[in-house]
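Q: Hi! Curious about what Glycine-rich domain-containing protein looks like structurally. Here's the sequence.
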Amino acid sequence: MQDRTAGRQTELPTTDTLAPEALGTGARDGTRYLRDDGNWALPAGGSSTPAQIELFTTSGTWTKPAGARIVHVRVWGAGGGGGSGRVSTVSENRYGGGGGGGGSYNEYFFPAAALNATEDILIGAGGSAGNGQSLNGSNGAAGTSGGNTTFGSWLTSMGGVGGTAGTTTPSTQVNGGSGFMPGGSGGGGAAGVSSYYGGGGGGAGGGVSTSGTTPPYAGGRGAMIRTTVLSAGGGGAAGTNAGASYAARVAPAATSRSTQHLSGDGGGGGGSTTLAQDGAPGAAGGLPAGGGGGGSGSAGANSGAGGAGGGGMVVVVTYF
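A: Let's find out. The predicted structure is below.
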């Protein structure tokens, strides 16, 4: 049998002829594929335009970009403000104010064609905190509710309820904003409730029991104390934002997560003291939607003020 390959040389393709840029015509990038006709093309429905992300923490107007296909809108209501504590003599119970409820959360994926060319955005303001009291025998002041946040006429997220005033009995729990994903409840007789999407509820302020039988609380509630024990404020209901101690009487900064597009923590409640000195304030709720912490009670001095609620927020992500 005759060897038909005898004397022939086999030439392999060079690296240059196998390079992607040599295998087709037209623009080529990481989003395109090589068609069987030798042209580089985008997959059906694909786009080389990156998503556009817009964050609103103040009221304004959203304008629909040219070429928009899908619009993902995320809306947070504002958190309620924390209530302040009661001032009374050492012979009376004096409880801290309740934490404000967290704002609620809503989201939706809209076909861009369904939205108007512009949509008004209204950002809810965080609830005001209850002021500390100085007149002996005075109950604390309640916080105000957080404002609602809206995206056009399409989505509304409700604000959290303001924290209750401190009295001679433990403060009651208040509701977070209602909606698709409600906010966490503000701290009352137990730890404030956290919420994964809605804002965290603020912790209640610490108080003083004359009987010495009131146990300490942890978590969202500002720590209750025994007659001879001095306690720091409880941590924020949704995370790590602790309240002020009785000694420092300066609330820490709010824990905000707006740049991460996550809900803010609830503010911690202020810690209480048996001493005749000013009570500790509650911490402010984080941005967005965190409820403010409650202020602590005081014996014959100024009670702790509540913490302000975190404001609302809107995030709009446009896909092309």
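A: A fun detail: The chain has a mean pLDDT of 71.
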